[in-house]
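Thread amino acids onto this structure.
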């Protein structure tokens, strides 16, 4: 069998089934009651929950073996994040019911964990990097918050400590050398975190040595020169940045590493006027306010105006409330499945705090039936679609020119995702009423695609959404055919700082010659009259 990580190395005694006697010896105490008081630094942990979420867990019957959750969701379920509202509620209210419910559910999980079977070949549901990482975060927090609560039994506390201890031992063996990806990055950071929380454990110095070495390697080798995480996904960038914050909370010296500062700067480059970051690649919509605040505390100042995140392969146009991100980066591998999408030279536009030209983004779950044929597929992106051709992963996308001036910003690039080379030029005209001109060339029949937040209607030689804010899309030359479609995507709402799934609407302009020049004119309420000279800026090659 081909394993996703190392071949299984779960020691039945040192990791899976640590005895009470062995645990007490490791802790240097004679009873669990003696070990429970929390005298260590508080675990670094962000997150929030509601009392209502905790109340919904009271008395809940949970089948920890249920495969009906989905192939990927079964793994995520055993991270145990869904139990953390009980810890929040106890902290807020001091009500012992929440501690007792954590006790009941955790003991049930611990007693059934060996029976869990997943459907990813070569990947154990419990003993793999993300599971070990996440449970350690949540369990150490619960241990600290519930340490003095009698409703949490000594039996449960011991199971929690065994979970953290066995996981740290597994992590130290699993991550004894560097490998790319968010899995090792976060797991190594948590190993360092556990070593700092429990310095009295005999193995803690070795854990700290391994964790520190891997985190430093990831900062050098897994974080790109512009600060972006290797996988180019804002959501996974935020995930590894949160892991770095956990390290910083206990070891502030990491703040001096230039890549730590660059990681915060990367977020600042991508944030829109609405306070969110687009859901590029497999990402969700990211609300980075806390990360930006921490970056400011480290002295990070956002780079103003338009610029490249060249190591990551993103071009940024920024003027006032308008924001553009153009993707020209590579398709990036991953431990299990790549988080890169099958598109290049695609772009997203925003203004007035909301999306104007949007894309499918990341799925609600990797078990979603539309994950491959919508969210990752070329048709969910604002780029050219070549009917009948599969998009290749080795697309060799590149930026050929990027220039910035007071009057206009220009990006030109190309890729080889299809059998014929695709060239694209995007000009961002500034001034009182900014707009974009997109020019595409490919020697093939192609469909020029763009997605808005409302249905498209014909208007004055072009197409507009039925509500604002929106964009007025005007082709310089009429298409051979106009195509319409819909698909799901998260829609950010700055008022509530949420991004629930809604419907986006695709506009496709088909031309047999593969030649397109299209003006995109943003409007807040109603479409504006387009400049008479807009075609002067168009590339008519």
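Threaded sequence (541 positions):
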């Amino acid at each position: 069998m081909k394993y996703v990580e190392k071949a299984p190395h779960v020691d039945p005694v040192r990791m899976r089934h640590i005895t009470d006697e062995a645990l007490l010896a490791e802790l240097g105490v004679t009873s669990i009651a003696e070990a429970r008081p929390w005298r260590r630094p508080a675990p670094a942990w962000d997150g929030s929950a509601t009392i209502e979420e905790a109340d919904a867990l009271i008395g809940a019957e949970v089948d920890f073996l249920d495969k009906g959750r989905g192939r990927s969701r079964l793994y995520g379920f055993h991270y145990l994040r869904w139990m953390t509202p009980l810890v929040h509620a106890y902290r807020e209210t001091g009500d012992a019911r929440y501690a007792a419910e954590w006790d009941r559910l955790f003991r049930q999980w611990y007693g059934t964990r060996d029976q869990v079977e997943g459907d990813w070949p070569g990947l154990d549901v419990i003993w793999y990097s993300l599971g070990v990482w996440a449970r350690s975060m949540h369990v150490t927090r619960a241990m600290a918050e519930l340490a003095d609560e009698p409703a949490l039994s000594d039996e449960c506390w011991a199971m929690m400590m065994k979970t953290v201890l066995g996981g740290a031992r597994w992590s130290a063996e699993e991550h004894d050398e560097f490998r790319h990806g968010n899995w090792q990055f976060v797991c190594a950071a948590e190993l360092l975190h556990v070593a700092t929380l429990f310095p009295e454990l005999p193995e803690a110095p070795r854990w700290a040595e391994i964790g520190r070495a891997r985190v430093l390697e990831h900062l050098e080798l897994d974080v790109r020169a512009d600060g972006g995480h290797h996988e180019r996904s804002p959501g996974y960038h935020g995930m590894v940045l949160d892991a770095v914050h956990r390290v910083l909370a206990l070891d502030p010296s990491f703040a001096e590493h230039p890549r730590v500062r660059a990681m915060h700067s990367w977020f600042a480059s991508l944030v829109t006027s609405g306070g969110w970051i687009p859901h590029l690649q497999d990402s969700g919509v990211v609300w980075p306010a806390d990360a930006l605040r921490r970056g400011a505390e480290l002295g990070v100042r956002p780079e103003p105006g338009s610029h490249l995140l060249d190591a990551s392969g993103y071009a940024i146009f920024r003027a006032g409330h308008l924001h553009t991100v153009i993707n020209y980066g590579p398709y990036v591998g991953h431990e299990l499945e790549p988080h890169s999408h099958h598109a290049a030279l695609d772009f997203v536009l925003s203004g007035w705090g909301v999306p104007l030209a949007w894309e499918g983004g990341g799925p609600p779950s990797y078990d979603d039936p539309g994950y491959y044929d919508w969210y990752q597929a070329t048709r969910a992106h604002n780029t050219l679609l070549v009917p009948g051709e599969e998009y290749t992963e080795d697309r060799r996308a590149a930026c050929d020119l990027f220039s910035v001036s007071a009057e206009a910003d220009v990006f030109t690039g190309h890729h080889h995702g299809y059998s014929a080379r695709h060239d694209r030029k995007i000009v961002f005209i500034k001034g009182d009423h900014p707009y974009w001109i997109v020019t595409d060339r490919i020697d093939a029949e192609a469909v020029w695609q763009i997605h808005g937040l409302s249905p498209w209607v014909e208007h004055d030689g072009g197409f507009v959404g039925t509500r604002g804010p929106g964009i007025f899309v005007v082709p310089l030359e009429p298409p051979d055919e106009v195509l319409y479609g819909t698909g799901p995507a998260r829609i950010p709402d700055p008022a509530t700082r949420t991004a629930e799934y809604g419907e986006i609407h695709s506009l496709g302009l088909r031309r047999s010659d593969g030649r397109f020049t299209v003006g995109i004119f943003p409007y807040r309420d109603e479409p504006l009259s387009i400049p008479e000279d807009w075609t002067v800026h168009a590339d008519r090659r």
